[in-house]
Structures
1.
Amino acid sequence: MPGWKTVPPKDDQGYFDLMSRAIFTAGLNWRMIEKKWPDFQRAFRDFTPEKVARLSERDISALMKDPGIVRNEKKIRATVENAKTILDLAKEHGSIKSYISGFGKREGKLLEDLQYKFKHVGPSTARTFLWSVGYPLSPTAEEKRWMKGHPEDH
């Protein structure tokens, strides 16, 4: 993904947008997802957690026919479930930012918890999400090699 130096989003909607982007990008070309992202934002109500959490089976069926987005049913359903999880965590912690901050420097525990709580979030997706929101992850050897070959001012 471009721009590996990032800043945290301003609200839960921004975190949800970036998490969903990480999920839909998994296994696909990120450039294609970036190009389609305005259609994703339209389809998923600008990633407003309250609106996405209320999507019905009829809404999900409509999304499965939307040519503007990646029509992966598991990822679409995960997005709806993740909206509910974001609302629950915001209720419990005040915001997603506070939930993440609550782990401090225990990135292993945070990565594990993200994979447990959120649907369709595996190890790589969890790392991509945390990088995208500016969490100070310790880069893996593979990530260090990638960053070396991709200076941030590209």
2.
Amino acid sequence: MKGAWTGILAGMVFAVGCGRQEPVAGKGNAGDVASSPLSAPVDYLAANAAGKKAAERTASLAPVQGALQMFHAAEDRYPSRLQELVEAGFLARVPEAPPGQVIQYNPANGSVGWVSSPAR
């Protein structure tokens, strides 16, 4: 009896796993399909690498954000440009942008972030 239930369960898992792949919600193209169990390790590694890159971009701006807060506390305004943080001694240097990105700074509210560089 135990073997029969195991066979039924295995058959159900096989039937569900071999079904038609549905498009992934949130993807731009209708041709994108959900990942299969065979590609799951590769998909995981790709997602992990993308997350690492995003974390590195965010972490590289942490010193700039801290310097902006200190400058604002000392001067009661945000600098007109990021180089002013270096000139005032709040930051050693403005970080270099990752490939394909540029730093975007808004002196009105002190927000800073990476954006895709405009196409030439």
